[in-house]
Amino acid sequence: MAKQQQAIQAIRGMHDILPEQSPYWQWLESQARQVLAGYGYQEIRLPIVEKTELFKRSIGEVTDIVEKEMYTFEDRNGDSLTLRPEGTAGCLRACLEHGLLHNQSHRLWYYGPMFRHERPQKGRYRQFYQLGVETYGMPGPDIDAEMILLSDRLWKRLGIRDMVELQINSLGTSDERLAYRGTLVEYFKQHLHLLDEDSLRRLETNPLRILDSKNPEMQAMLQQAPVLLDHLGAESLAHFDSLKATLDDLGIAYTINTRLVRGLDYYGKTVFEWVTERLGSQGTICAGGRYDGLIEQLGGKANHAIGFAMGMERILALLELLETVPVAASVDVFMIRVGSAAEAAGMRLAEALRDQLPQLKLQVNCGGGSFKSQFKKADKSGAEYAIVIGDDEAARGEVALKPLRADQEQLTLDHSQLLQFLRDRHQPSSL
């Protein structure tokens, strides 16, 4: 007797999305698509694998992502390739490669899995899904505001707006940050005894990121640190003031978080995050900012760019806290067939119904079984109605239509009456 092989399990931190979970993903994705379409954004589909050099140049070689978290490998040609840890670099690479930034402006979005070798925990996975939105060629604070308005509209549509808070800040220009960086480093050097190991490492390479630290023992010291907004010039302040004025005019509440920074120098002026207290330590569900400097860093001509990315798993975790999410059943009608004549007649009828009602989600029982066992499947499917065909019904060209979710009488209908009933009274729901 052959030895049974040991079952293979999914890679740690990479999770399956099971059939009962998929409708929630599909509903979230459909809501996002509709909101993006409402603002005139176009989808771009990008490779999952890129050259490693792309991320080294965009994210930075001394970052945790590049040093510790990327899934990098050599292909058969000896080229170093990486599973994308984020989407911005690939989107910008595609725009530069295909000449989309030459005297043009674009509003783009993409969606799909990203990969980082992090310690898995709730809301943080090694394969995770992001929806990213990027715009190019628009320098003013109006497009910054539109980014925030778009995301705000999505939260309202999902029913989670009261669970999230908008935080904004301005990083100014590279020269303004350089001057501020020197002031900040001097401040931290006066408090070296309070810095943890991570912060000491960042002191020389990425001191602004120290402001992001969640270490409770450092919070009092960080609260007293110099503030970047105090080091901005007139142009940067005017840009930020215009953004705030637009948000105020449209009634979008926000908090100015002076410790909201980005560790990479190509970010400048507007940065923003949507945060929640409902998910523990994984409180950021959406983060964005202006990154004009990255275009030249990747070989393009100087231009303007701002974007954001949202973590789909974290948004779904918020949706789980709602009492109801309007997710459609995966099946509208379930067909029960018992008898050889009924099986053939039922399959013909099902195809005819699909021809006439292409939006109808009709599942036909396959694999046989008694009326009782098939009714159990029909009930489990979530269908609103069961179409029942035995050999007698097949001979008469009729069906029994049984409501499964309402206390109503079972109907006997011929095929034309069934079609009319489904067309007139049952409105198929769609994602």
From TrEMBL:
<protein>
    <recommendedName>
        <fullName>Histidine--tRNA ligase</fullName>
        <ecNumber>6.1.1.21</ecNumber>
    </recommendedName>
</protein>
<dbReference type="InterPro" id="IPR004154">
    <property type="entry name" value="Anticodon-bd"/>
</dbReference>
<feature type="domain" description="Aminoacyl-transfer RNA synthetases class-II family profile">
    <location>
        <begin position="1"/>
        <end position="358"/>
    </location>
</feature>
<dbReference type="InterPro" id="IPR036621">
    <property type="entry name" value="Anticodon-bd_dom_sf"/>
</dbReference>
<comment type="similarity">
    <text>Belongs to the class-II aminoacyl-tRNA synthetase family.</text>
</comment>
<keyword id="KW-0067">ATP-binding</keyword>
<keyword id="KW-0648">Protein biosynthesis</keyword>
<dbReference type="InterPro" id="IPR015807">
    <property type="entry name" value="His-tRNA-ligase"/>
</dbReference>
<keyword id="KW-0436">Ligase</keyword>
<comment type="subunit">
    <text>Homodimer.</text>
</comment>
<dbReference type="InterPro" id="IPR041715">
    <property type="entry name" value="HisRS-like_core"/>
</dbReference>
<keyword id="KW-0963">Cytoplasm</keyword>
<dbReference type="InterPro" id="IPR045864">
    <property type="entry name" value="aa-tRNA-synth_II/BPL/LPL"/>
</dbReference>
<dbReference type="GO" id="GO:0006427">
    <property type="term" value="P:histidyl-tRNA aminoacylation"/>
</dbReference>
<feature type="binding site">
    <location>
        <position position="116"/>
    </location>
    <ligand>
        <name>L-histidine</name>
    </ligand>
</feature>
<feature type="binding site">
    <location>
        <begin position="266"/>
        <end position="267"/>
    </location>
    <ligand>
        <name>L-histidine</name>
    </ligand>
</feature>
<dbReference type="Pfam" id="PF03129">
    <property type="entry name" value="HGTP_anticodon"/>
</dbReference>
<dbReference type="GO" id="GO:0005737">
    <property type="term" value="C:cytoplasm"/>
</dbReference>
<feature type="binding site">
    <location>
        <position position="134"/>
    </location>
    <ligand>
        <name>L-histidine</name>
    </ligand>
</feature>
<dbReference type="GO" id="GO:0004821">
    <property type="term" value="F:histidine-tRNA ligase activity"/>
</dbReference>
<dbReference type="InterPro" id="IPR006195">
    <property type="entry name" value="aa-tRNA-synth_II"/>
</dbReference>
<keyword id="KW-0547">Nucleotide-binding</keyword>
<dbReference type="InterPro" id="IPR033656">
    <property type="entry name" value="HisRS_anticodon"/>
</dbReference>
<feature type="binding site">
    <location>
        <position position="262"/>
    </location>
    <ligand>
        <name>L-histidine</name>
    </ligand>
</feature>
<keyword id="KW-0030">Aminoacyl-tRNA synthetase</keyword>
<feature type="binding site">
    <location>
        <begin position="86"/>
        <end position="88"/>
    </location>
    <ligand>
        <name>L-histidine</name>
    </ligand>
</feature>
<dbReference type="InterPro" id="IPR004516">
    <property type="entry name" value="HisRS/HisZ"/>
</dbReference>
<dbReference type="GO" id="GO:0005524">
    <property type="term" value="F:ATP binding"/>
</dbReference>
<dbReference type="Pfam" id="PF13393">
    <property type="entry name" value="tRNA-synt_His"/>
</dbReference>
<feature type="binding site">
    <location>
        <position position="130"/>
    </location>
    <ligand>
        <name>L-histidine</name>
    </ligand>
</feature>
